[in-house]
Structures are given as structure tokens and as C-alpha cells.
Design brief:
By secondary structure, this protein is of the alpha/beta class. It folds into two domains: 174 residues, Rhodanese-like domain (Oxidized Rhodanese, domain 1, 3-Layer(aba) Sandwich), CATH 3.40.250.10; 97 residues, Rhodanese-like domain (Oxidized Rhodanese, domain 1, 3-Layer(aba) Sandwich). The chain is built from ten helices and ten strands. Strands 1-5-4-2-3 form a five-stranded parallel sheet. A five-stranded parallel sheet has the order 6-10-9-7-8. Helix 4 crosses helix 9.
């Protein structure tokens, strides 16, 4: 099955991303004069349908269209050891993103970012959108999903991005300071946690707060991780009172495939929560690892009325 093949590639990608719960590198302290809360509230509550994710097939179609999107591979040098990238991409490693705005196109130009499995893509997506780039998408499942979809792969490494000459969006310099400090100080695990490591953390004390940011119907249809609290992504800010009061309390976020989980995780970190991680591959990654779930309740169906 295609699902199984994807997570075979996905499991290999996790070898360089596996982590356990912990505070990681601290998020840079915010300027007391700058309040990012209303910005994050507006961002989360106005997320578009699809959450700015794009599948591999639609990415290929976009790359064959006009205008072609500016394609950014945000992986690091070590990520290229398995070989290959998406033709047409330029490389800007995620920790260098905020210091590379001169290498991006105009703020309304189409931009697509991708990483290994989609987690870092979510971080880049949030960062660029908060800075005013209005047409950014992230490839769901990243390069692993692209390869699993049997789409063409260029050999070697993508070329480094060059200065484009485009004017960067206008943004609050204090917002940029917060985002720049966050991006340039990302820990080596990028706040991702492998499903098995997440399960181990759930069995320890203190147990992390498990945040499921999917829509309720997804839980009904697919099941969920025992002990989770369901707060759909668009409503997370308005339900912060349901999260731990301690800003350093461990929190694990997950969605279906990792895209929304990364967005939620990034938003919480920017709000000042210091111990947040997102499950790599989301609920699908958890299931593919053979970990326990609460099965969805069967839907009651009416018996057919016998024909007369």
C-alpha cells in the first residue's frame, strides 16, 4: 500500500530527527514592550482551508505552470546524504531563513517550502506568513512524500539561493526580532519527537499534555491517542486556558500527518511556551509505528426495512 511505502521512507527520515521530550534550546525571550499574542491569535483563527499545505502532485503541477512558484528546500547539508532534491529548488537552511529575506521573491509571489517530512516546513510556513508573505505553502510530508509519490528527483544538492532584489514585506521590527531569535536558535531536533519517543514520555511523570489539533470528525473517523485533549488548530489560542498554566510544562502536539501539528507547536513556542514538541508524521505516523490508539466508535446504522 502507498501508505506503508510512505512511512518506510518516513521512518528512515526520522533517524536524523528522533528526539525525546525536553526543553531543548530556549526560545528567545520576548521584548516586554512587544505583545505577539494578538498576532498569533489572528493568525490561528484565520488559517485558510487546507492550512496552506500542498500535496506533491499539486506541487509538480504548480512547478509546470506560470508563474512558477519559488521553491525553497529548507533542509541542512546532512539531509542530502540520501541524495536528491526537487528540481528547481534553491537551498536556504531553516535556521538561516530570517536572515535570507533578500533571497526571496516579492511578498505576493508564490512560494513553496519543503523539508524532509514536513515538520520544518510548518515552522518556515508560519514564520514567512507572519512576516507578510501572502502566498506561501508547505509540501505535506516533505521530500519523503515527494519520493514516495514517485515524482522526479534531481541528483546532488540544490543550489544555494541568491539575492533576488525583491523588496521584503513591511513588518514590525519587533516582530522580526522575535521571529529571528526563534529561527536562529532552533534546537537540533527542531522540536520534533518520534512517535515511539512520544509514547515513552507519556509513560513518565510528569506526563506531557497531549494536544490533538485535528477536527472532531477526524477523531470519530480515525481514532485518537489516549489521554489527549482535542482543540482544533484554529481554536487553540481561544482555548489557552485548557493548556497547562506553567509555561514550561511539557506539551506534545499532533495532527494527522504533522503539518498542523508543526503550525500549532510553532505558535505555542512563539507565545512563550518553552517545552513543546510535535509528533513526527502526526497520528498517521503514530499508527504506522504500531502504537496503541483509542479506536473510533462504530457508527450506528439503521437496519434496512424489509421489502414488502
Amino acid at each position: 500500500m502507498k501508505f506503508t511505502k510512505f512511512f518506510t521512507v518516513f521512518a528512515v527520515a526520522l533517524l536524523v530527527l528522533t528526539g525525546v521530550m525536553g526543553a531543548g534550546a530556549p526560545v528567545a525571550a520576548q521584548d516586554a514592550k512587544f505583545d505577539i499574542k494578538p498576532i498569533i491569535q489572528n493568525y490561528l483563527t484565520t488559517l485558510p482551508q487546507g492550512f496552506s499545505g500542498i500535496g506533491p502532485a499539486d506541487t509538480l503541477k504548480a512547478l509546470q505552470g506560470d508563474p512558477k512558484p519559488y521553491l525553497i528546500d529548507i533542509r541542512d547539508e546532512k539531509d542530502f546524504k540520501d541524495g536528491g532534491y526537487i528540481e528547481g529548488a534553491v537551498n536556504i537552511p531553516l535556521p538561516m531563513l530570517t536572515q535570507s529575506l533578500d533571497k526571496l521573491p516579492a511578498q505576493d509571489s508564490p512560494i513553496i517550502v519543503y523539508c524532509g517530512i514536513g515538520h520544518r516546513g510548518g515552522i518556515a510556513l508560519v514564520t514567512l506568513q507572519l512576516l507578510g508573505y501572502t502566498n506561501v505553502k508547505s509540501i505535506s510530508g516533505g521530500f519523503a512524500n515527494w519520493k514516495n509519490s514517485k515524482l522526479p528527483v534531481a541528483q546532488g544538492v540544490p543550489p544555494a539561493a541568491e539575492v533576488t532584489g525583491a523588496k521584503a514585506p513591511e513588518f514590525d521590527p519587533e516582530l522580526f526580532k522575535v521571529l529571528d531569535a526563534f529561527i536562529t536558535n532552533l534546537p537540533s531536533d527542531y522540536y520534533v519527537v518520534a512517535p515511539t519517543a512520544a509514547l515513552q514520555s507519556f509513560q513518565k511523570t510528569p506526563k506531557p499534555f497531549i494536544l490533538d489539533v485535528r477536527e472532531p470528525k477526524e477523531l470519530t473517523d480515525k481514532g485518537y491517542i489516549e489521554g489527549m485533549v482535542n482543540i482544533p488548530l484554529r481554536t487553540v489560542y481561544d482555548n489557552l486556558d485548557k493548556l497547562p498554566a506553567e509555561m514550561d510544562a511539557p506539551i506534545v502536539v499532533y495532527c494527522a500527518v504533522g503539518h498542523r501539528g508543526s503550525i500549532g507547536m510553532t505558535s505555542l513556542l512563539l507565545l512563550g511556551y518553552t517545552n513543546v514538541k510535535s509528533i513526527a508524521g502526526g497520528f498517521n505516523g503514530w499508527v504506522a509505528a504500531g502504537l496503541p490508539i483509542v479506536e473510533p466508535a462504530p457508527v450506528a446504522t439503521e437496519e434496512a426495512t424489509p421489502a414488502k
